[in-house]
Amino acid sequence: MADYSRRGWSPGRHTPIVLVVAVLHLFVGYALVTGLARHVVEVVKQPLQTKIIAEVRKPPPEAPPPPPPKLAAPPPMFVPPPEINIQVPVQAAPTVTTVTTTAPPPAPPVAQTIASVQPAVRREFKPKYRLDPEFPRRALARGIEGRVSARIHVTPAGSVSEVEIRRSSDVIFDREVIRALSQWRFDPEPVGFIAEYEIVFQLKD
Q1: CATH superfamily name and code, 119-201
Q2: What is the pLDDT of residues 152-181, one digit of tens each?
Q3: Distance from C-alpha of 173 to C-alpha of 136, rounded to nearest angstrom
Q4: pLDDT tens-digit series, residues 102-122
Q5: Contacts of 199 (CB under 8 A, 6+ apart)
Q6: In 2-45, which ranges are continuous DSSP H helix?
Q7: Please, which residues have CB within 8 angstroms of residue 149's CB and are 6 or more apart in sequence?
């Protein structure tokens, strides 16, 4: 008869189990002494942070672009109607001829104007009123003598409308000649005329 009590206990087979149990007891004792278990409990007690993940919504579909505006059709091009030239025959009016037995009145004689008789430019024509030019003071101070040839345009009323200097020995005399001859007066005539004069400035001894 076999002895099972001896065969069931084997120090070599049970040594690892005994060591594991001993290590667990040592670890539990160390945890109780150092407060490691309390830290584990505090870590477990910390509140859990929860994050709410918002639902990602898809963007709404883009609205279709508006339809292009309808353009009104352009008005039809204006085409002017063709010009139609209608030629109407012109009827000649009947001519009426009258025969007179009385002679026509004689034509009036052609009046000859003074302008056709007088020359185009009158030289040294005597005026109705004459104002002689004065000797310029600057010419007297410088001892200058002069000679000026001038034309005057006379209106039909006899007044002078323009004085034109033709020749002048010194411009110092021109202003005085224009001033004096502009005040000359002539007898009225049907038409105006042009007269030419020569004014001489001489120093007296």
Answers
A1: TonB (3.30.2420.10)
A2: 999 999 999 999 999 999 999 999 999 999
A3: 7
A4: 555 665 554 444 444 555 899
A5: 133, 147, 148, 149, 150, 173, 177
A6: 4-8, 11-34, 36-45
A7: 165, 166, 167, 168, 196, 197, 198, 199
